[in-house]
Amino acid sequence: MKILITGGAGFIGANFCEYELAHHPEDTYLCVDALTYAGNLASLEKVLSLPNFTFVRGDIADRAFINDLFAREKPDIVANFAAESHVDRSVTDPEVFLRTNIIGTQVLMDACRQYGVGRFHQVSTDEVYGDLPLDRPDLFFTEQTPLHTSSPYSASKASADLLVLAYARTFKLPVSITRCSNNYGPYHFPEKLIPLMITRALADQSLPVYGKGENVRDWLYVEDHCSAIDLVMRKGRAGEVYNVGGHNERANIDVVKAILRELDKPETLITFVTDRPGHDMRYAIDPSKINAELGWLPTTRFEDGIRHTVQWYLDNRKWWENILAGEYQHYYTAMYGNR
Ligand code: NAD
Ligand code: TYD
Q1: Ligand 2 centre and the CA of 276: distance in Å?
Q2: Sign, Cα dihedral of 185, 189, 194, 196
Q3: DSSP string of 301-314?
Q4: For a surface tag, which of 76, 143, 256, 315 has the fewest beta carbons within 10 Å of its beta carbon?
């Protein structure tokens, strides 16, 4: 089979490329990525030279490029990871989120229709469900929870999900969707909570916690997300949505303190800063459908995953120091300068 992975030079996409090549070496992989600020070829170093892996730089919202690529390559499965993914950036500049996350998804699905692709898999997020209150720990997102978004990012992802389901019903496109909770692990861009805190703590810089740090996220080690996507795109039922998460809820402040403990750094580095506008309170996934239908379960406990992750950042300084030395330097001042 030939599998097209979009957004493969990003955090989850790069981990997915490694996962696929390790678990299904008999398949052929084509990775398409525009290499935006979040894309990094260094994240694909382990797979780039393999004979059954090809990288092509390109934009999923560029119809001529995508049609030409599909005509030439005729993929059997398309897994769409390509996206603008950072909520804070969507607050300052929503437009590119609409272009990539919505139009890009549509362009890919049109090409899937035209070239008879066997499965279009959309990598989505639990953020499409909005948030849950902190005082109702009994509530979880199920696949039936109504979409109710808070940020331009989540609105763009929910719009894409609706389009995917519309293409399934109207055009009988064989699609699937996974909606996963927050991921962490290797190759995570240091603008997101966990890698931002690790890299700043290592430099003894202040750690900007939004609001009171009480917001809760449901953390999943990235390899567990990859195994879920792999199962759903190969064996999941067409037209279905599957929630992915590992019942691993933590308040942000506890995550930051866990990182400081791993690094043996003082909690005095923590600085409470102005909250994110529209900040979602709590995310929590009910993963019983993917467990019952496909037997998926997460394998990495948070305590082990966070230790591996901190160790990865210690062992791969060059990877993130190169990022910090580039465009991202200006980003930090622009985003946090006046908070
Ligand atoms: P990321 O920002 O690290 O990577 C996104 C990748 O997409 C980058 O390599 C970027 O260059 C590429 N890209 C952006 N615009 C493109 C375009 N127009 N054409 C082609 N490539 C483009 O994101 P991530 O954290 O790896 O997330 C991957 C997917 O998983 C996204 O769809 C995101 O919504 C979803 N998701 C992420 C999380 C999480 O915790 N990170 C959780 C659930 C779902
Ligand atoms: P983030 O990693 O941006 O993921 P998402 O917003 O998609 O869940 O943020 C995770 C949580 O951490 C979220 O509640 C916002 C919070 N946060 C901070 O407190 N400080 C920061 O500097 C960042 C980037 C996030």
Answers
A1: 9
A2: positive
A3: -HHHHHHHHHHHHH
A4: 315
Q: Which of 192, 194, 205, 274 to mutate to test the pocket of ligand 2 (most atoms within 8 A of CB)?
A: 192
Interatomic CA distance for residues 70 and 60, integer angstroms = 11
Give the active site residues.
126-127, 153
User: Furthest-apart CA pair in the chain: how many Å?
Assistant: 57
CA end-to-end distance (rounded Å), the chain: 50
pLDDT in tens, the chain (339 residues): 999 999 999 999 999 999 999 999 999 999 999 999 999 999 999 999 999 999 999 999 999 999 999 999 999 999 999 999 999 999 999 999 999 999 999 999 999 999 999 999 999 999 999 999 999 999 999 999 999 999 999 999 999 999 999 999 999 999 999 999 999 999 999 999 999 999 999 999 999 999 999 999 999 999 999 999 999 999 999 999 999 999 999 999 999 999 999 999 999 999 999 999 999 999 999 999 999 999 999 999 999 999 999 999 999 999 999 999 986 556 667 777 777
Q: Which two tokens stand for residue 26?
A: 């008999």
Atom of ligand 2 nearest to the CA of 194: 2
Written as six digits, the tokens of 162 are 């609706």
- CATH superfamily name and code, 2-184+220-247+283-301+328-336: NAD(P)-binding Rossmann-like Domain (3.40.50.720)
Mutate to test the pocket of ligand 1, among 36, 106, 159, 229 (most ligand atoms within 8 A of CB): 36
Please name the amino acid found at residue 283: Y
What pTM does this model have? 0.97
Q: Which ligand 2 atom is the nearest neighbour of the CA of 210?
A: 19
